[in-house]
Backbone:
């Protein structure tokens, strides 16, 4: 559900004032975060994380020192952090952090619409603007070996992760700017729905939160969550993209049934979960069979929801169990997709 780096930069910059983006450019050994992890620091606070602890404290201090200065177009810095006693950490790893100050002028030079699957290229040196690479054809104009690295990421031959590349023309940070994540449609803004939305914050899902009345949503909807009030949630379910995840937990059994029927009739979902007891499951499944839903589709509907073995009925407990279940399903789907690609 976490927004992409670019979306978060735009959102935080909208409040006015410059910010500093801090990105993990490279990591070795036992590092707290992977290359591409980021945080944004402005004069009022910060968002995201590069690993917490003393490392993050030092990074935030460096970022605020940059903000305190007069600034310059595309001001940047690259700093090394051994994760040892000096940082009060025993990881034994090594992290290189990339700092980039972004104000109104820099924001205006970032793309308004980022191409799906594209890359953002940050020169390490201050001055030049960041560049966008949409596909392998546009990557051909880049300096070698930057072109090779970018082309391999864009073609799927290399993992989509940040990489620090040395070239004759200078060093660059190759930065995949990912979309928010797997589409997840959550139906119902009651206590459990609210708890699940909070539990999904910073997880790799693009959440669309659906209910029949705008007033049912809380005033503090997490960033990156799209709310949708509609009189017919089942219609939204039927129009969802292939492979989307769905969680059905409205205030109405009739509405739950209609949403699930729309999903099962098309059978295009990646995951569909229905809140309820074993009794509700038995009654709903009988109705679905009577309505002609095929057994293979019915077998893919999860009810009750939540990873088995986590007891408790409090909304927060259910939310943790559901978030864990979704991550498990997402990991399993990625493993199957990777195996299919290797066989191709």
Residues:
């Amino acid at each position: 559900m976490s927004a992409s780096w670019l979306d978060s930069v735009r959102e935080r910059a909208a409040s006015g004032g410059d910010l500093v983006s801090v990105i993990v450019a490279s990591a070795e050994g036992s590092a707290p975060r992977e290359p591409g992890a980021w945080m944004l620091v402005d004069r009022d606070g910060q968002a995201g994380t590069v690993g917490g602890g003393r490392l993050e404290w030092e990074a935030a201090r460096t970022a605020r020192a940059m903000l305190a200065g007069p600034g310059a177009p595309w001001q940047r810095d690259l700093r090394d952090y051994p994760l040892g006693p000096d940082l009060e950490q025993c990881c034994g790893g090594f992290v290189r952090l990339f700092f980039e100050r972004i104000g109104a002028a820099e924001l205006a030079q970032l793309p308004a619409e980022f191409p799906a699957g594209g890359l953002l290229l940050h020169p390490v040196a201050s001055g030049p603007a960041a560049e966008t690479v949409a596909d392998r054809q546009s990557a051909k104009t880049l300096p070698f070996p930057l072109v090779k690295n970018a082309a391999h990421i864009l073609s799927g031959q290399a993992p989509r992760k940040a990489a620090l590349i040395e070239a004759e023309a200078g060093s660059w940070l190759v930065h995949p700017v990912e979309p928010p994540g797997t589409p997840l449609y959550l139906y119902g803004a009651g206590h459990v729905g609210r708890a699940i939305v909070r539990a999904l914050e910073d997880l790799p899902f693009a959440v669309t939160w659906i209910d029949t009345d705008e007033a049912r949503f809380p005033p503090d909807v997490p960033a990156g969550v799209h709310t949708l009030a509609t009189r017919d949630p089942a219609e939204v379910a039927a129009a969802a993209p292939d492979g989307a995840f769905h969680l059905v937990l409205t205030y109405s059994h009739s509405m739950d049934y209609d949403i699930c029927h729309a999903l099962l009739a098309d059978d295009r979902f990646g995951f569909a979960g229905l809140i309820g007891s074993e009794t509700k499951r038995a009654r709903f499944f009988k109705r679905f069979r009577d309505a002609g839903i095929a057994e293979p589709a019915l077998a893919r509907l999860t009810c009750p929801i939540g990873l088995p073995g986590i007891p408790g009925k409090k909304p927060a407990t259910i939310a943790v169990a559901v978030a864990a279940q979704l991550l498990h399903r997402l990991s399993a789907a990625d493993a199957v997709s990777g195996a299919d690609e290797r066989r191709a």
Observations:
- The longest helix spans residues 315-343.
- The longest strand covers residues 19-28.
- The two ends are 30 Å apart (CA to CA).
